[in-house]
Design a protein that fits this description.
This protein is an alpha+beta fold. Helices cover 52% and strands 22% of the residues. It is elongated and about 55 Å long. The mean pLDDT is 84.
Length: 83
């Protein structure tokens, strides 16, 4: 019964997203300008691209975001230590 409800619930959420659109919430802040988002209902993941538009979060983009986050954090740690 629980399995049936989870299947029905996920299809219902996907249908709602198809009709009404996604409800994205920030799931990770990569930098001040680049963030990763996840839909509250269907769990679809997107990220901001170079232009600031939302695009699908592929494994390649996830790796790019992780590398960018590491560089961003190191750079800001160094600037805080110097000041």
């Amino acid at each position: 019964m629980k399995n049936l409800l989870s299947i029905f619930g996920s299809k219902f959420n996907a249908l709602c997203c198809g009709i009404l659109g996604h409800h994205f919430a920030v799931s990770k802040r990569v930098t001040n300008h680049i963030k990763e988002y996840q839909c509250v209902h269907c769990k679809k993941q997107v990220t901001t691209d170079v232009s600031g538009n939302l695009s699908a979060l592929t494994p390649e983009k996830r790796d790019i975001n992780n590398t960018l986050e590491d560089i961003y954090q190191r750079r800001h740690k160094e600037s805080q230590q110097v000041a």
